[in-house]
# Entry
Amino acid sequence: SEEYIELLKGDMPQNSDLFEGINTTWSRIKGGKAIGEILYAVEENFDFKNPSRHLPELVKAYQLLQKVEDEHWKSLKSEELKNIIMACAGLYLEASANSSSTTPGSTASIQIEALNRSSQNILLKKVEIVGAEAVLNPNKLLVDNQKENLDVNFKVSENIMYSSPYWLNETGTLGTYAVNDQTLIGKPETPSAFLARFVLEINGSEIAIEKPVIHRFSKPDKGEVYEPFAVLPQVTSKIDEKVLIFASGSPKDVQVTVTAGKDNVSGSVSLNHPSGWTVSPSSIPVSIANKGQGISVSFTVTPPSTESEGTISSIITIGNQTFGKELVEINYDHIPKQSILLPSEAKVVRMDIKKSGEHIAYIMGAGDVVPESLEQIGYQVHLVDPNDIQMGSLDKYDAVVMGIRAYNVVESLKYKQPILFDYVEKGGTMIVQYNTSGRWASQFENIAPYDITLSRDRVTDENAEVSIISPKNALVNYPNTIKKTDFDGWVQERGLYFPSAWSSEFTPVLSMGDEGEPTTEGSLLVAPYGEGHYIYTGLSFFRELPAGVSGAYKLFANMLSIGKSEVKKESNVKG
# Structure
């Protein structure tokens, strides 16, 4: 098929210039014509062998630009022109801290470096650290290719803001961020806490150039590495598990890692907790000698006897100050290092959940944390290598669960289907989580013991209406009664890649659909096979279980318990 563009308004260009009739020259700005004449001449006659020869004209253009009344263009073009001047002069300016971070109230040490790689006379008049009360007045001529180094120390303000993405400083709502300072909106990064402002005199004109303070260091395998210079708390903490599931009234040990942001940190750690929960001990003293060092402490958290959900948060007290942030560092070669400060907290869920069976074989697909989630409610999960599956080797397990997209990424599974179906036929339970239909190949036509057709059907609204269309089915009755409220609090979506057609042996259990879309009944299908059961589900358990959604846990426990009345496997099972 052909595609074309239809002109709706305006006149067709008379030539190939898309901007025909639109003035994009300097003359469109009041006072810009003279600037343009200088810059166009430099561009036309640019000396690639000696770019610094053009500095006098570029500086003259910069002086004229400062007289332009239009603040938008003056600000924008001044920065661009200063970068051109620096490039033509071979001018290198840097302010590097002796460490990657500092803390409020600490002393920071900065090394200033200035290098002129041209024969033009450039005077370094002053260096000011913006964001701190620190000024140097070297008033030194930067001689061609002779590096000028200066050192400056300053005390960081006690009230300075921490370095963290500005859109995460306030608590937002679902899908949106809250930003109080509207001038930050649209900036890709939070502005640097400290800037080095170099005041230069070039060809008789004073030009100020600002550079963010960074941290530069060398690594044997990477050479010189540049990182932003961050302001961080003197201590941070992290609750090791972000979601803690209590399937009974038994207590759990909760590990908290405390990390020092400076040398010689001493204080105490405590856990804030919801009403009805208890934490022991009430606080634990900590003392850390070296910046960057972390220590781990353990609290015992006991849930209430009834169902409850809330948040625990770790608080560190040092003198009359409290600190409750977790530091997350995102550090890849292709982006600047990001220091993110988030509340140091974890979700705690006390759920009244029943289950049958104990030992679960889990065959990992593309990767998920469902096994760890199931272990939190008392299952013993054994990761099984598909290549180790032999006839009868799965019989010791109460259920076999396929990880997400297992049939998309584990090629050997196509040879193991007869063994898996034999396991089900002899009384086992097999649960297959979603696979992507777009990558479905003919060798996987026997993913189920009966006909089933995968599709791209999905329900993207996590709050979409869910109906139980097989209310007498065991999956919604045993051992936990599933109600509509069990679909409250789901995250991101209901599910994806639901089957669109299936044989009569399957029973659809649920119906759901996004607003304005047809409902689908393929999210949860169950079929008897021999003495066992086969279940296919596109429900997003891989998202809901790690998020601590109690209804999802109950439904998954029912899936694992189908056809069972009690724990029936030996406790010495090994995967």
